[in-house]
Specification:
heterodimer; A: 293 residues; mainly alpha; two-stranded antiparallel sheet; 11 helices; 73% helix; globular; B: 318 residues; two-stranded antiparallel ribbon; 14 helices
């Protein structure tokens, strides 16, 4: 029982991380209808910026918020400069541009900061918290809390502000929104900015666990895709919950099913995606897309 | 025969003639690179039949490529089957696997299909490492390059080049005939308007899963040839990036075009090398810039740009 609970807790901890990246993916998908393959690399790059600031002696929280601001601006600029020229091209063309962006960011980060792993500080205390015989890592709990806070803020933003409403409208029906006076192009750019910001938060929370290096996000991005699929690409809350589920199931299966062990862990996560897609293609909490014929 | 068709035939014949002359002009290393281009072109045509013509996005064709490569490697290494037989077997096996994967894929479209196939591509290296008894685990399987038969005085590289070229021409002719006829129209109709296609009596489910199978078979044959050409298979060669490379290849070459596969093959083989030559420090940054610039300049790929240029020229003359 103790082992079981401990595995669930550590599954929740990793799951929170998957959830935060999945949240960023879902944000961009909702705001722009594009699955951004460069999302992970954008988060990685922001984390390196934070590392540079911390190395220059900036206090943690100042660096944290400065990084978020820079990430937001970079996200907007990337949409304006890189994505906008292919806005009306076929979807696959946009996907290829995102892949181009991915390799550029990865390569430039490796060039500037080298491929050597760097430790990254956590804002939370090192001492684990114990309840009964179960250990909670303080950073894990903190990271989960930050993810949930971001989710709450996003919910409030999209639900209760005019700007949030305008962004949702622009994504759902660009033509009518334009007729209502919403600047659809800028709403898309804002969507990219917000997603970059959420990605930066995720990066900053992940780096203390996996260490900082240019490929740190690639493994996590895969799990984030799994989480977003599980929760549904149209539901931000679902994405976070999907992340937690993926984390827990992955841990439990790895512990209890002997022939799987740690070697086939990833395969299990992927089999899970396939099953979800076949049974409920829009995910557990996603909206079923209805097409007019 | 119209004038346009005559020109096209002349260009194809000239290209084949040049391809036949290359082995006697280039070094073995360059020749090996061109063999790779042909192998990529076969795989890209396979993916293009599925994604370009039938509208099903796949990010998992690296899995079928791996299946083909391992089929060949295991048959040669464990059962000493002559290599010539392993290529059709790899094709048939991938045809079946693709068809079977195509059935559940019927329920998915667009993004969701891309994700499901992406999962397939991700799982491949792990699965290959797990069945160590068959696949040799992460060590992989080492093969020896087959030599030329019947006392032909060709080096193994030259011989493999001709084998690949032969398979390429055969598969491209088959593909062109498939896509030009009744079947091809049905495949394209399902992409453009599935409901109208059904109403016209096209069996959507059957055609879609068959297209998946054929596409996988092409990619599997390419994988089998790559195992022969490189004379080595290992799990980490079949990572996600391979599948993404295929997708890049068909979009750069031109979706829904047969000749686009050749241009795509040239791009994915040579552009990373050029990028390496331009900048040793950050070659992939250069590659990424190439990708983005290509997409700005030719959003519909190389063939799309050529078609546009041809149409402008015709209007200018006409």
């Amino acid at each position: 029982m103790e082992i079981f609970l401990q595995q669930v807790v550590s599954g929740l901890a990793t799951g929170g991380i998957y959830g935060s990246v999945a949240l960023a993916l879902v944000m961009i998908y909702q705001a722009t209808d594009v699955v951004n393959f460069a999302q992970g690399e954008m988060a990685m790059f922001s984390t390196y910026l934070a590392w540079s600031m911390l190395n220059a002696g900036v206090p943690y929280w100042a660096a944290f918020f400065a990084t978020l601001a820079v990430a937001f601006v970079c996200g907007v600029v990337i949409e304006r400069v890189v994505i906008r020229p292919v806005e009306n091209a076929p979807v696959l063309t946009i996907v290829i541009v995102c892949i181009g962006l991915l390799v550029i960011l990865n390569s430039v980060a490796g060039w500037i900061y080298s491929y050597i792993q760097k430790p990254f500080p956590s804002p939370f205390p090192e001492k684990p918290i114990t309840i009964g015989n179960i250990f909670f890592g303080a950073h894990d709990l903190g990271a989960l809390g930050v993810t949930l806070l971001v989710l709450l803020l996003l919910y409030v933003f999209f639900r209760y502000t005019t700007l949030g409403l305008a962004m949702r409208a622009a994504a759902q029906n660009p033509v009518s929104s334009r007729l209502c006076g919403i600047r659809v192009g800028w709403m898309l750019a804002l969507g990219w900015g917000l997603a970059a910001l959420v990605g930066a938060v995720a990066g900053l929370m992940i780096a203390p666990i996996v260490f900082l290096d240019p490929t740190m996000m690639s493994g996590i991005l895969i799990y984030a895709f799994a989480s977003a699929t599980l929760g549904g690409f149209t539901s931000p809350g679902g994405a976070v919950l999907g992340g937690l589920l993926v984390g827990v199931i992955e841990n439990l299966v790895g512990t209890y099913v002997k022939f799987i062990g740690t070697e086939l862990k990833l395969t299990v996560a992927l089999a899970m995606i396939l099953v979800v897609l076949l049974v409920r293609p829009s995910g557990l909490f996603g909206r079923v897309a209805v097409h007019r014929v | 025969m119209s004038r346009g068709q005559g020109w096209r035939r002349a260009i194809v014949l000239a290209a084949i003639a040049i391809a036949c002359a290359l082995p006697f002009l280039l070094s073995n290393f360059r020749l090996f690179q061109f063999t790779q281009v042909f192998i990529y072109a076969i795989a890209l045509l396979g993916l293009n039949i599925l994604t370009g013509f039938n509208g099903q996005i796949s990010l998992g064709h690296g899995a079928f490529y791996a299946l083909g490569a391992y089929t060949t490697a295991i048959m040669i290494d464990r059962w000493s089957v002559p290599y010539g037989w392993t290529i059709p077997v790899a094709g048939l096996l991938c045809l079946t696997a693709g068809f079977l994967f195509g059935i559940p894929a019927l329920r998915l479209e667009g993004l969701y299909l891309a994700l499901a196939t992406f999962a397939l591509a991700l799982a491949v290296p792990q699965i290959l490492k797990y069945f160590e008894h068959w696949t040799g685990g992460s060590q992989g399987i080492v093969l020896s390059k087959p030599g030329a038969p019947l006392g032909l005085t060709l080096s193994p590289d030259q011989w493999l080049y001709f084998v690949t070229l032969g398979v390429l021409i055969l598969l491209f002719v088959l593909g062109a005939n498939l896509l030009r006829g009744r079947t091809g129209r049905a495949i394209v109709a399902i992409r453009d308007n599935p409901i109208a296609a059904q109403a016209m009596g096209v069996n959507g489910a059957l055609y879609k899963s068959l297209t998946f199978g054929v596409s996988a078979a092409y990619t599997g044959v390419a994988g089998a040839l790559s195992a022969l050409a490189i004379a080595f298979v290992a799990p980490d060669a079949f990572n996600v990036f391979l599948s993404i490379t295929f997708l890049v290849g068909i979009v750069i070459g031109g979706l829904a075009s047969i000749s686009g596969a050749i241009f795509g093959g040239l791009f994915v083989q040579f552009v990373p090398n050029w990028a390496q030559e331009i900048s040793k420090a950050a070659p992939w940054a250069i590659y990424g810039i190439f990708l983005i610039v290509f997409m700005y300049a030719m959003p519909r790929g190389i063939v799309g740009a050529l078609r546009l240029a041809g149409a402008r020229l015709a209007r200018f003359r006409g």
